[in-house]
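Q: My labmate handed me this sequence with no annotations at all. I'd like to see what the chain might look like in three dimensions before we decide whether it's worth expressing. Could you predict it?
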Amino acid sequence: MKNNEMSRIVHTWERRTILFFRVTRLAWVTDFPVLAYQTKCGMTQKGIRRDQINPMNSVLYGATAGYALWGVIYPIDMIKSRMQTDGFTPSTGQKYTSARDCVRKVWRTEGISAFTRGLGPTLIRSPFANGATFLGFEMASRLLYS
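A: Here is what I predict for the chain of 146 residues:
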């Protein structure tokens, strides 16, 4: 493999890794503020401490956060997935040169519906996965702080 090809592969890998971490960071930015807000509202309304919140409420907060997360992030996640499965060079099947190029080509060839294709099953799965995550977080917090 030539040095020039290797540098292109490394550059592409770095670019895609940065995109992945930006999307992951967005998940943290949307999920935990929802948990904090809903927990605080529940505590304020009932006049209780955090460790007195019903565990089922944590599951409901997680379900809400999951819907909020996937409703916002799904089109971005679709672009990330397309970039991850794209080839490294034109000879290996690279279709997109950047995330912006991916958005343009997908919009032009497949239309706006391509950005939400598969959202239904994700929204069916989301409340269970996020609810379990929030419940696990709350139970672990109670165990560690007790």
